[in-house]
Amino acid sequence: MHRLQMSEYLCYSLRMEKVTGRSPMTDSDDSIHTISDRSLTTPPRINNLFNIPIDFSRLLDEIAIGVVVLNLERKIVVMNQTLKALTGFSQKEFCGFDCAHILRSDICLHNCPALRINEKSGPKCIEGNLINKERQLIPIRITSAPLKNIDDKIIGFLETVEDIRLLRKLDETASHAYNFNNIVGRSSQMQKIFQSIPSLAQSDSSVLITGETGTGKDMVAETIHHASNRAKGPFAKINCGALPDTLLESELFGHRKGAFTGAVENKPGRIQMANNGTLYLTEIGDLPLSLQVKLLTFLDDKEVFPLGSVKGFTADVRIIAATHRNLEQMVNGGRFRKDLLFRLNVIRLHLPPLRDRHGDIQLLLDHFLNALSAQLGKKTLTLSRKALKILLTYNYPGNVRELKNIVEYAINICSDPQIRTKHLPSYLLQPDPFDIPGVAKQHDVPAAALSDESGFLRSKPDQNWPDIEKRMIMEALISAGGRKNKAAASLGWARSTLWRKMNQYGIR
Amino acid sequence: MVSKKILIPLHENDVAPRFDLATEVLIVTDLDKTGSGDKRMVVLPRASAEQLCHLIITENIQTVICSGIEDDYYQYLTWKRIEVIDSVVGSSNSALKRYFDGKLKPGDIL
């Protein structure tokens, strides 16, 4: 972020119109006067920023990351002290030489960001390495931004070169400290996902993450971003289901001043903000059809047209989408475009529900007990055998998020060293209809039977009492083989009460 | 006549900025006063510092003129008694001429 701000500052604020190809001090209107290639007699200066001219090289030297200004031929015009220290080259050596010979980076040779910059594109950010004069291989991150004149023509490039050795070390430490960017799991399903994320991260293909609510779709999306080459770039998230259509369009694609009533200034969209980074579209299934077409166009052309603008902006963005909906069903129902699904569904990651992740509930309970106890400033609590049994047999329709909330609730409520059943949320202690003999337990029920469409089969914490009562009656009737007397007895009601309630809930 | 075998990793006509990323090398033998000799261009199947070191050893190269080289490979080559003149920036011809004149040294910018 700091780099981009610096780039933009130098690009747009200082107005470096005449960086190259001009003899020094020839034009009194120039904001910056600079040296011609290899000339060291006149230092580059900035004239109109303060009352007196200031030395541009000294200004650059104050910046703590490497900065280099290149001309259109990618020859070095000026380089700051930090970059000199990083490469080991001195001022007299590098002036007028090709950037690739001085930086000696793999990026310069194979993936020069300056070559990919055009009038429409913004800064490019790439990770790589360089070999300095001390023969050290140093991991670096280069951000290249165009330098434009007042006519908006590119006249050179400003590159920042960041030494990321420390970041790499921290990344290694972090990856050892947590299971995978804080995603905890040892079940075979999660292990498969952990193994696939690093390789998925290295590509720029679109990713579609599916899975029930609370399974960790957002965390996986962020993990992919942080493991990718775009990690230093922005991670922009937008919830496609949270905003009305028109607002969502403006939020996603941006708008120009005057595009609609209330558009008092230009606003960049999330796509533009995610340039060189990742755009995470959560709840993509809720994206209105009209915007699906516009998103489709962007995925094809990689060009964004803000509302009310005829000028496009090329955005280098990786798309990660997520939904808890069945997009194939939505396509069949005409609520989601098939072609958009095909474009998003390049790489598909399905996150399993917690009830299918054998062995992970215990692991997650331990993890959240430790983490949340520390966070809430309490001693690490243990679970009583009965409380543990309840937690292990519950089917967690809200998945990991629900489990975390249960643990957090228990830690807050519990003042003893051990969490007992009385410290658990009350809905967990409701009689579980699936515990009735002869009826399959919830966690044994196939995943398909527990889908949203199956409705009452799932014990949702947000269900109201009538729903629970209706389900209890149904299960009592099933276990009694349809005999109302026996069902009423098992519920502790008179037969007339059962009859009245069956009428009330429309059970025949 | 200098009866030495010299290898220069190339990037177009220049000394390649990176030893490990060069896919072409120039091998010069029997260097004469004009800086030219029996020149042979070898195109490598892929850029690899290990393969290049292997080529240097099998070709009995005595001197390597290069630009950026990792310390591990530098130490290996010098341990193998191969002279390595690194951090040389400029065209391969200029580097050869300067080498023949006995003036080429590490870090030279030509």
Descriptive notes:
- The complex is a heterodimer of chains A (508) and B (110).
- Chain A has 508 residues and is of the alpha/beta class.
- Chain A has 3 domains: 2-167, Beta-Lactamase (2-Layer Sandwich); 178-351, Rossmann fold (3-Layer(aba) Sandwich); 430-437 and 458-508, Homeodomain-like (Arc Repressor Mutant, subunit A), CATH 1.10.10.
- Chain A has 20 helices and 19 strands.
- Chain A has a 5-stranded antiparallel sheet.
- In chain A, strand 2 (45-46) and strand 3 form a beta hairpin.
- In chain A, helix 8 (188-202) crosses helix 9 and helix 15 packs across helix 17.
- The longest helix of chain A is centred in the last third of the chain and has 16 residues, at 360-375.
- Chain B is globular.
- Chain B has a single domain (2-100), classed as Nucleotidyltransferase, domain 5 (2-Layer Sandwich).
- With 110 residues, chain B is α/β, with parallel strands linked by helices.
- Chain B is built from 3 helices and 6 strands.
- Helices cover 25% and strands 29% of the residues of chain B.
- Chain B has helices at 49-58, 71-79, 92-100, and strands at 2-11, 14-15, 24-31, 38-43, 63-65, 83-85.
- In chain B, strands 1, 2, 3, 4, 5 and 6 form a 6-stranded mixed sheet that branches.
- Chain A binds chain B through residues 93, 97, 100-104, 106, 108-110, 130-137, and chain B through 11, 14, 17-18, 20-21, 67-71, 74, 86-87, 89, 107, 109.
